[in-house]
Amino acid sequence: MNGYDLSTPDVRANPWSLYAELRTDSGIHQVGPADHYLVARYADVVAALERTDDFSSLEMANQLGPIDALASLAGGESRDLPPTIISSDNPIHNRLRLIMQRRFSPRAVGKIEGPIRSLTDSLIASIVERGECDLVRDFTIPLPVIVIAQLLGIEEDRFEDFKRWSDSLIALPTARDEERQRHLGEIIQLAQYFLAMADKRRTEPADDLISVLVEAEREADRISTREVLAFAILLMVAGNETTTNLIGGMVEAFMDNPDQLAKLQADPSLVRNAVEEGLRYCSPVQGLFRNATRDVELAGTLIPEGAPLMVCYASANRDPEIFSDPDRFDVTRDARRHVAFGRGLHFCLGANLARREARIAIEKLLPILPRFRRVREERDWVDSLFLRGPKTLPLALD
Ligand code: HEM
């Protein structure tokens, strides 16, 4: 083995130099801890994502274990895992995607602009009032969690439970022993809650995503009850820590680059552009997983049938072949070719929502951003091999 490993503390703190090394030679190297073939160059990342006959998304199920395992709860006896949109290939993928696609269109997302704005205002107001915060705990986590809870149709008096459940979903993969049991208990409660809610929506439909799912369930063969549960849970997970990492990562980037903050303040119409650059620069999802459907060649490397790959969006987004001076955060850069939301078939379903939340967050944080001061110099990162963002961000307001 060549000794590359994504899980070491040094790589957690700074994955960018490892990615630069992995872009050399063939651009494809096996990396620990699980010996994935990591695809590092932009052109190869795009090719791997587009060649869906050669690279299957079933590998995602190994990484999203809790979601798939949970869905089997809804199925009673059967141990077969139902596919989720993100861990399936066609034709299953398109069947599931079509059910939800319209609900995440720019138009549909535009309709909740008002509520996202007022939620953002109230979170910021309480930070300003206190004069200090952990921006992650007090802002970047609650914003997307509350937005998706509202979209799913969770009753407001269950938001606290919902927050605890989604924390458990995120913590489960790295938890051990008693911790793990506790998280599993929370997740079972969540599954029961969603199942009960789906039952209710079958007789009393409302304008929410659970109703969209049970409506599709009524039409023969569109979606099974276990898939309804898995889809609801996936929507919870996929949109939370990712958007949290984007906003937190961008705030850090602005604090590290005051010249860029000054540029944005001088011309706030750059917010849209800055969010695309934030997606490129931070890559909240560093990479996701595929496996080779047969012996395949990618960029001159033979990948044996069944072998797992990590398609590294974060490395592609720092590829100097595509982005000049790629390690520079530059709010005026044209970053639109980034692959932070993936590419092709599995392109992020929630991209319009994530972009809107991030634009509103940055626009509204802009007036107080120059007053933020770190109260602690050490940094920490979320415990994940494929997500990246600050785990905490304790700040004082000068
Ligand atoms: C900054 C925030 C986000 C980032 C960086 C992000 C990133 C991604 C990426 C890279 C993929 C591609 C998966 C693949 O190629 O296998 C993806 C898929 C997906 N995302 Fe996001 N995401 C974000 C926010 C959201 C939000 C807010 C939601 C929904 C509420 C969401 C829901 C999904 C779903 C359902 C898929 C699967 C789509 C499919 O397989 O067709 N994401 N996301």
Characteristic terms for this protein:
single chain; 398 residues; alpha+beta; Cytochrome p450; five-stranded mixed β-sheet; three-stranded antiparallel β-sheet; 18 helices; 10 strands; 52% helix; binds protoporphyrin IX containing FE
Secondary structure layout:
Blueprint: H1 9-13, H2 16-22, E1 28-31, E2 36-39, H3 42-50, E3 55-56, H4 60-63, H5 65-74, H6 92-100, H7 106-110, H8 113-130, E4 132-134, H9 135-140, H10 142-152, H11 159-171, H12 177-203, H13 209-218, H14 225-256, H15 258-266, H16 271-282, E5 288-292, E6 296-298, E7 301-303, E8 308-311, H17 313-316, H18 351-365, E9 372-374, E10 394-397
Parallel strand pairs: 2-8
Antiparallel strand pairs: 1-2, 3-5, 4-10, 5-8, 6-7, 9-10
Helix pairs in contact: 5-12, 5-14, 8-18, 10-11, 10-14, 11-12, 12-13, 12-14, 13-14, 14-16, 14-18, 16-18
This protein binds protoporphyrin IX containing FE.
